[in-house]
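hey
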């Protein structure tokens, strides 16, 4: 209802409930873990260079983000097992990331900062990713749900509105002393860091939802 209220405020005289299609949606953005300490996630859809697992924002749509999550994926390249057949982990599970020092190295992603930006405005600045680290149950690490928080999503204080026609990015910055070498270059696997954004998608809502909330 807050989404429709915002649409109505920026589209006076229109029946926004009839004119706009609004649906719950998850954007998934991913980058392969390498030796670098800066990871940039672009929200907009691309014709090339986008992974099959990703779900990005169409240039014609708008997205009201209410929750954010940070995940890790271990891709088996030796078997191989596609990323879409792999479980997203919301903490560096040592049973999955089992190389020597690998899980410890990946903790750097949960002691980092992220900045959400709509060029040139920073919407969220230096957000501590430690609050995104989620271990479902110590004795049942595969337990999941049913709430969003129990799926590793952190609820924001208010919606962040993304206009697909604008350049929206998330910058994930590891600390200067972070050592992720033990999680890089392991034979037979790729590790991916995944930003998961939950909210409401407004189809054909770009440039129709006004400025930032």
């Amino acid at each position: 209802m807050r989404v429709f209220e915002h649409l109505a405020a920026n589209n006076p005289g229109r029946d926004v409930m009839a004119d706009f299609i609004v649906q719950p949606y998850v954007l998934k953005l991913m980058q392969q873990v390498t030796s670098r300490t800066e990871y940039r996630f672009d929200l907009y859809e691309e014709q090339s260079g986008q992974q099959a697992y990703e779900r990005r924002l169409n240039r014609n749509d708008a997205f009201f983000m209410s929750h954010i999550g940070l995940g890790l994926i271990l891709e088996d390249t030796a078997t191989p097992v596609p990323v879409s057949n792999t479980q997203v982990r919301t903490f560096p599970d040592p049973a999955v990331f089992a190389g020597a020092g690998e899980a410890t190295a990946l903790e750097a992603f949960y002691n980092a900062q992220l900045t959400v930006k709509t060029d040139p405005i920073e919407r969220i600045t230096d957000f501590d990713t430690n609050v995104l680290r989620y271990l479902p149950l110590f004795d049942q690490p595969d337990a999941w749900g049913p709430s969003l928080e129990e799926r590793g999503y952190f609820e924001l204080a208010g919606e962040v509105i993304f206009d697909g026609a604008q350049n929206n990015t998330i910058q994930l910055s590891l600390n200067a002393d972070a050592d992720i070498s033990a999680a890089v270059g392991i034979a037979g696997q790729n590790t991916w860091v995944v930003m998961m954004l939950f909210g409401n998608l407004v189809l054909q809502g770009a440039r129709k939802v006004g400025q930032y909330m």
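Strands lie at 21-32, 38-42, 62-76, 113-118, 121-128, 154-163, 168-173, 189-203. Residues 2-10 form the longest helix (9 residues).
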